[in-house]
Amino acid sequence: MLTGTERAFEALKIVGVIAAIILGGRLALRPLLRWIANSRTPEIFTAASLLLVVAIAALMQWVGLSMALGAFLAGVLLAESEYRRELETDIEPFKGLLLGLFFIAVGMSIDFGVLLAQPLRMIAVVVGFMIMKGLVIHGLARTMRLPYQERPIFTLLLAQGGEFAFVVFQSAGPQVLPPAVSSFLIGAVALSMLVSPLLLVAIDKWLLPRYSVKGSPRMEEISEPQSANVVICGFGRYGQIVGRALVPQGVSITVLDHDPDTIESLRQFGFRVFYGDATRLDLLRIAGVASARAVVVAVDDADQSLEIVDLMREHFPHVPIVARARNVGHLFQLRDRGVQHIEREVFESSLRSARSVLEALGWPAAEAREATMAFRRANLQLTDEMYPTYQDRNKMIATAKEGRRQFEEQMTREREQRRAQRQVTFGWDDDTVPDTTPTPSSPPTSSASSGKPDSTADDRRM
């Protein structure tokens, strides 16, 4: 029986070890993995990762906690490193073996006498918690806007008990859970896992046909290595324009997208789009990124875009990247990663809209063009000035305000100069400019509607 002082010491030891694992992992793990990765030997990389898991698990057992909890902490640390994708690929062969050993150990710990002694209660507990968990997960699927036909499988797969429940129940001592209760709960979780495959068969046979679109084809996945000049990651409203502009010029492209609805819609228009997650290193390799002359990162999720760029920089640093930036913050993060060719997705179209508004207000087309081009140049310059300070919000805001003030003062001076010029040349000022708004009988002739080349595309840079 431990005294109060001994219990306090044990608690401090546990907290200290966990804190040391987390802090040490964050500070030392990345440099260590980077040093190992530079050896270009996958076997050493895999062995070092497994050694880390075993070492942390043994350390947790030494302080009196579960080895499974240590393995969980090690997994979290590895998942937060920039090498997580490569680790997933390297450790994949061990997954089936270790999972098999885990469930064998769990099965040996189940007391089947408890299950047989209270069968009705066992069934009620399993059905009850699977229904409750399934309702919560289905609600989350709707909130996340998961595709309608994927919700039944998503709900059922996650409604069963989790593997970590075995660790928790077995780690709980008699003071927390009596042995009979612990055995009963372990049996309930195991039974929920046992019935899940049977329910999947039933859902696949009777329920999924009602959710799925009749005659919907299977999404085409990459099975053979590709060798196109350009790989486009993401083929939504942005990537489609890029691809449609390249194909007529004889540029071969390989397209990756993970949205089944988008892929099916594009297939109807004659596009061949491969289904897959572009953040997977193995998929990028099969897509032919290593031999591509350029990769277009056109996905609409900023975090996913950065993941793809990180993989490219680590494994294919020789391949040029053309990236889509969702906003200025995303643009700065792409610059941090060394991406040179970045396009803000709505910047140019917004400038064209502003130019059209000025023309609709009676501005001469040349002056409307010059005003929007002046704003474009000033905005790009301001973006360059904000970049060194973007991680300090106060400095970035101050830089943005000062840049906007200077631009507005410059535009005011130019506006006064134009007004004075009009008075000298034509005898009118801005308040008496004739209304040149097009009438229904005389359609507008701006470049946005006449089919002439758009001059705002000149001087393009980021």
UniProtKB/TrEMBL annotation:
Signal peptide region: none
Originating gene: kefC_2
GO cellular component labels: endomembrane system; plasma membrane
Transmembrane segments: 12-29, 49-77, 97-116, 122-141, 153-172, 184-208
Stored InterPro entries: Cation/H_exchanger_TM (IPR006153), Na+/solute_symporter_sf (IPR038770), NAD(P)-bd_dom_sf (IPR036291), RCK_N (IPR003148)
Listed GO MF terms: antiporter activity
Domain RCK N-terminal: 227-343
Region called Disordered, residue ranges: 403-462
Superkingdom in the source lineage: Bacteria
Location within or outside the cell: Endomembrane system
UniProt key word tRNA-binding: no
Entry-linked SUPFAM superfamilies: NAD(P)-binding Rossmann-fold domains
Annotated membrane topology: Multi-pass membrane protein
Stretches with biased composition (Low complexity): 434-450
A biological-process GO annotation: proton transmembrane transport
Keyword annotations: Antiport, Ion transport, Membrane, Potassium, Potassium transport, Transmembrane, Transmembrane helix, Transport
Record carries keyword S-adenosyl-L-methionine: no
Species name: Pandoraea pulmonicola
Comp. bias regions, Basic and acidic residues: 403-419
Main location as per UniProt: membrane
Lineage of the organism: Bacteria, Pseudomonadati, Pseudomonadota, Betaproteobacteria, Burkholderiales
The protein, known as: K(+)/H(+) antiporter
